[in-house]
Amino acid sequence: MALFNLRKGASTEAKPENLAALLQGASIEVMPRTAAKVESFREILPEGTRVYVAHIEGTPIDEMVATVKRITDEGYPAMPHLPARIIDSRATLETWLKRYREEAGAEQALVLAGGVPTVAGEFTSAIDLLKTGLFDELGYKRLHVAGHPEGNKDIDAKGGTKLVDEAVMWKQGFSEQTDAEMAIATQFAFEAGPIIAWAERLQAMGVTLPIHLGVAGPTKLQTLIKFAIACGVGPSLGVLQKRAMDLSKLLLPFTPTELLGEIAAYKSAHPDSLIEKIHIFPLGGIKTSATWLNEHN
């Protein structure tokens, strides 16, 4: 890989061994309908891979529980999404959490607001869910919360990061009181510099929660741009749009190798960075992302 500057006056070589080290313990995400297309997770995923199970609005809880159980039964730690805005009551939250624990063997959860336009009940944010105390009561050992390297216009509608920063500091305080291990899982982005600056800013604010950085797995560039727009990816979307204007690159599949090479080099030079692990969004298919992960791990 080429030499590059992560910040003015500094040059670091992105080495394959640094990338492999960064990818140790990487996680991946599925939905019930995509998981159903996988004959065996053991055949495609490294041992111990954490598998997030995304709960899209309208997905029956029975399908979620069955998917989490299948993943757990195959020997992988499953982390179901708990999107606050699709949960209509505390009773529903308690029922879902009990089913994930008792029927599916889950001990982990990703707690997030959920980007849906209509709120189903009393919960509007991850903080609302965490305040119930149910995760500790029911023995959840690991909780992840959402992070926003490029800000979040749903939260800070007028721009800036004031409300996002206040939320992450609340979650930092909560992490110091709960028995569960906690981490920040991020939306995917495409540019190393802003990601690194965000992680450093959180650390300067006093945040100690490790960051599990979200990246898009290999996929067609056109598909990736569509997902990026739908998911509200911010300034780094310009990186994709610039690539799309280069006809020599337009037909080539996107991979996160270059981005993660830069992050890996930075992490090697700054081992105390909050960036700890990588989370893969398999936008081009879980088997494609799993193959890429195995090739670079």
Give a short overview.
With 297 residues, the protein is of the alpha/beta class.
Protein traits:
297 residues; alpha/beta; TIM Barrel; 8-stranded parallel barrel; two-stranded antiparallel sheet; 16% strand; disordered N terminus; oxidoreductase activity; FAD-linked_oxidoreductase-like; 5,10-methylenetetrahydrofolate reductase; oxidoreductase
What does this structure look like?
By secondary structure, the protein is α/β, with parallel strands linked by helices. It has one domain (3-296): TIM Barrel, CATH 3.20.20. It has helices spanning 16-23, 32-35, 61-73, 90-102, 126-131, 134-137, 162-175, 192-205, 221-230, 237-244, 247-250, 257-269, 286-296, and strands at residues 3-4, 12-13, 27-30, 51-53, 78-83, 108-112, 142-147, 181-186, 211-216, 275-281. A hairpin with a 7-residue loop joins strand 1 and strand 2. The chain starts with a strand and ends with a helix. InterPro entries: FAD-linked_oxidoreductase-like (IPR029041). Keywords: Oxidoreductase. This is 5,10-methylenetetrahydrofolate reductase. It comes from Pararhodobacter marinus.
Write the SSE topology.
Blueprint: E1 3-4, E2 12-13, H1 16-23, E3 27-30, H2 32-35, E4 51-53, H3 61-73, E5 78-83, H4 90-102, E6 108-112, H5 126-131, H6 134-137, E7 142-147, H7 162-175, E8 181-186, H8 192-205, E9 211-216, H9 221-230, H10 237-244, H11 247-250, H12 257-269, E10 275-281, H13 286-296
Parallel strand pairs: 3-4, 3-10, 4-5, 5-6, 6-7, 7-8, 8-9, 9-10
Antiparallel strand pairs: 1-2
GO molecular function: oxidoreductase activity
Protein name: 5,10-methylenetetrahydrofolate reductase
Keywords: Oxidoreductase
